[in-house]
Amino acid sequence: EVSPVLEVVGGGKVILEKEKDKMIEAGRGVDVQQSSGMLVYSDSVVSEYVDTNVLRIPKGGEFKLQLADGTRVYLNSATDLRYPVAFTGPERRVYLKGEAYFDVTKSKEWPFIVRTCRSSVKVLGTSFNVCSYEEDSLEQVTLEQGGVEVKHHDETYRLHPGEQFELDTTNEEIEVKPVNVKLYTSWIDGMFRFHNMPLDLLTVKLERWYDVHLS
Questions:
Q1: How far is residue 193's CA from residue 78's CA, in Å, rounded to a whole number?
Q2: Cβ-contact 92, 71 below 8 angstroms
Q3: 208 near 78, Cβ under 8 Å?
Q4: Which of the four pLDDT bands, split at 50, 70 and 90, describes residue 189?
Q5: How far apart are CA 55 and CA 178, in angstroms?
Q6: Against a cut of 0.70, is the pTM above it?
Q7: Do 190 and 157 meet the contact criterion of CB atoms below 8 Å apart?
Q8: Rounded Cα gap, residues 169 and 161, in angstroms
Q9: What DSSP line would sit under the chain, residue for residue?
Q10: Cβ atoms within 10 Å, residue 207
Q11: If pLDDT is split at 50, 70 and 90, which confidence band does 45 have?
């Protein structure tokens, strides 16, 4: 069975086993609780150093994470998320390669930023899904609740609940459209829903989820 890997400050690596509950040292005296398939960072961490951790999810795997501000993140297969063990400064910023669903702790004064290799998603408190694999031709941000702003190059796109930002990376075309949100978020509940998805895209998703090769 594939297992996620937590990379901590100094280059250390910890293999995460879903069935085990334990404390993990995440760097400079910061301990993280692993419980019921989730990593939980404490909101009481205060440090002059802003250490970052990287949670890497292999193909066929998934994991949950609670950041220091209480934000919950569901990470899909073949996904990397880089984040600080504690948030300092005027914003909360994380870096995503792959797909993740975010349930962000609300704060009007403390925006939450998700950076991908192509775009930046800014929120104050909301629930949304980001799918941004470097090898894919599409990047999608799907909003379930609240509001988000997606910035690509010098343009900013404001989403409302039930809307999706879609970037076609082959021609840089962008579309904001209404969608059935459950088609893009049901994976966090262990269900996969599809509607009129091209076969080549469906094949890629199935290969990631199940770590298989479909010829």
A1: 19
A2: yes
A3: yes
A4: confident
A5: 31
A6: yes
A7: no
A8: 24
A9: ----EEE-GGG-EEE--TT--EEEEEETTEEEEEETTEEE--TT---SS--EEEEEE-TT--EEEE-TTS-EEEE-SSEEEEEESS--SS-EEEEEEEEEEEEPPP-TTS-EEEE-SS-EEEESS-EEEEEE-TT-SEEEEEEEES-EEEEETTEEEEE-TTEEEEEETTTTEEEEEE--THHHHGGGGT----SS--HHHHHHHHHHHHT----
A10: 16
A11: low
Which tokens is 53 given?
Answer: 């951790």
Question: Can you tell me the distance from the alpha carbon of 126 to that of 161, in angstroms, rounded to the nearest whole number?
Answer: 10
For 62-94, the pLDDT digits (tens) are 999 999 999 999 999 999 999 998 888 899 999
Token readout for 200 is 């080549």
| Neighbour count for residue 42 (Cβ, 10 Å) | 14
The β-bridge relationship of strands 38-40 and 63-66 is parallel
